[in-house]
Amino acid sequence: MLRVIFDTNIYGHLINEPDAEVLEQKIIQEPEFVVYGFGPIRKEIRNISTSSRLGRQTRLYLLGLYDRITKSHTLPESSRVMDLAKEYHGRYQAAGGAYGWDTNIQIDFIIVACASIHGLDIIYSRDKRTMGNVKAIRAYDAVNQKENVRTPNLIDYELLVKKFRGLL
Q1: Domains in the chain, please, with CATH?
Q2: pTM for the structure as a whole
Q3: Does the pLDDT at position 54 exceed 60?
């Protein structure tokens, strides 16, 4: 069984697919593929401005999509997750990372920390700039090795779509 988490951006990309409803159903119905939810991800979706280009209806649809895909599989927030995320950030900055803690990288590090602590297999993301940055990946691996937890594989969104279209 694959235990995965979707970066927040995945939900927005999914709704833009021409076969979005088919993909959603395949993800939900695949018994060997469990998508976990996490409060900060849902909070990011909920915080999409109703005056943004996405609008209120899209935000509501994204929240519904998130809830349908994650079902009752929700991972808890904890101080351990936050501590690990801050360790990633310290290591990332020591390696010359450009983003401060109070930027979008914070939620990325929190998601990776949560997935690492809970032993998830994969994080699906399309974020190469922050979450998938080489310095960030090195930070995850170094800190997780020290903390004796496994870093989940970061897999691109395109492979997720191909998997559920039967192209892999």
Answers
A1: 2-164 (3.40.50.1010)
A2: 0.94
A3: no
